[in-house]
């Protein structure tokens, strides 16, 4: 059975594996896959969030068979497995992978999802929902789709009893602190103790937006904390204390195929 998995990355020191699934049911204008298809956390891709996008990254052509995904994970000293995007919930193999590694490795399985589809969560231990925007018109403008189903599914996931969190990308002048506060109010209507993470936007795709300043991130955090008890931020400048390597394709295969991200290399050269 072929899966939608095209990339497995692994952080040996933290025993975390990252499964990347191709295909999505929304089209975010700021999707990272326009810029970097293979895991953004890879050591080879560090600092690319600061680079200017140039064109669109090449879509993957190789995908893994179900048995190969499972055996690859079994061969790693892994304790946490993150099922992430584009959108993992679209793959019929996703629940099968989660079940197999639960039984064979006793992993903690974390699903990162846009919440548009309610997948089988029997073998998922935590869910992180990316809430792009609260206003329906804003959501349609950013993703091409209404968020009504997402806002209906969010409390359904919560009521399932699976621990969950939410995150939103802060885009100055577009999905700004006022929109962040609306999202926070919605989350608080479900449970004010749900963890909420605000991620600083980095340039991806053909968009006019810029990265937020630290002050703008803090303003968004303050707005969200009016309604929620656990609000955090990722500014993209935090130091990383662990390495991440690609397992599939291997680092050697990535280098040989010259699977470079779509960025302007001049942006990576210090002035």
From TrEMBL:
Cofactor(s) required, per the database record: [4Fe-4S] cluster
Keyword hit for Iron-sulfur: yes
GO molecular function, one term: 4 iron, 4 sulfur cluster binding
Radical SAM core domain span: 22-186
4Fe-4S as UniProt keyword: yes
InterPro entries the record matches: Aldolase_TIM, Organic_radical-activating, rSAM, rSAM_sf
Keywords: 4Fe-4S, Iron, Iron-sulfur, Metal-binding, S-adenosyl-L-methionine
Top-level taxonomic group: Bacteria
PANTHER family according to UniProt: PYRUVATE FORMATE-LYASE 1-ACTIVATING ENZYME, PYRUVATE FORMATE-LYASE-ACTIVATING ENZYME
Protein name: Radical SAM protein
């Amino acid at each position: 059975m072929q899966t939608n998995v095209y990339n497995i990355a692994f952080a040996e020191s933290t025993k975390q594996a990252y499964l990347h699934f191709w295909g999505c049911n929304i089209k975010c204008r700021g999707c990272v896959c326009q810029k970097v298809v293979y895991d953004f956390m890879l050591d080879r891709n560090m600092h690319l969030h600061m680079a200017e996008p140039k064109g669109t990254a090449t879509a993957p052509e190789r995908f893994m068979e179900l048995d190969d995904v499972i055996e690859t994970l079994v061969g790693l000293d892994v304790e946490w497995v993150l099922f992430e995007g584009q959108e993992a919930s679209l793959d019929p193999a996703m629940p099968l992978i989660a079940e197999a590694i639960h039984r064979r490795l006793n992993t903690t399985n974390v699903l990162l999802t846009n919440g548009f589809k309610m997948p089988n969560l029997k073998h998922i231990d935590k869910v992180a929902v990316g809430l792009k925007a609260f206003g329906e018109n804003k959501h349609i403008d950013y993703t091409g789709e209404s968020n009504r189903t997402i806002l209906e599914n969010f409390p359904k996931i919560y009521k399932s009893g699976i621990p969950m969190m939410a995150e939103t990308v802060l885009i100055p002048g577009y999905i700004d602190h006022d929109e962040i506060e609306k999202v926070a109010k919605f989350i608080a209507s479900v449970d004010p103790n749900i963890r909420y993470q605000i991620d600083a936007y980095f340039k991806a795709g053909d968009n006019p937006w810029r990265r937020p300043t630290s002050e703008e991130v803090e303003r968004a955090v303050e707005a969200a904390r009016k309604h929620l008890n656990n609000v955090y931020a990722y500014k993209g400048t935090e130091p990383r204390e662990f390495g991440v390597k690609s397992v599939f394709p291997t680092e050697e295969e990535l280098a040989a195929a010259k699977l470079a991200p779509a960025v302007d290399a001049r942006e990576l050269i210090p002035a």
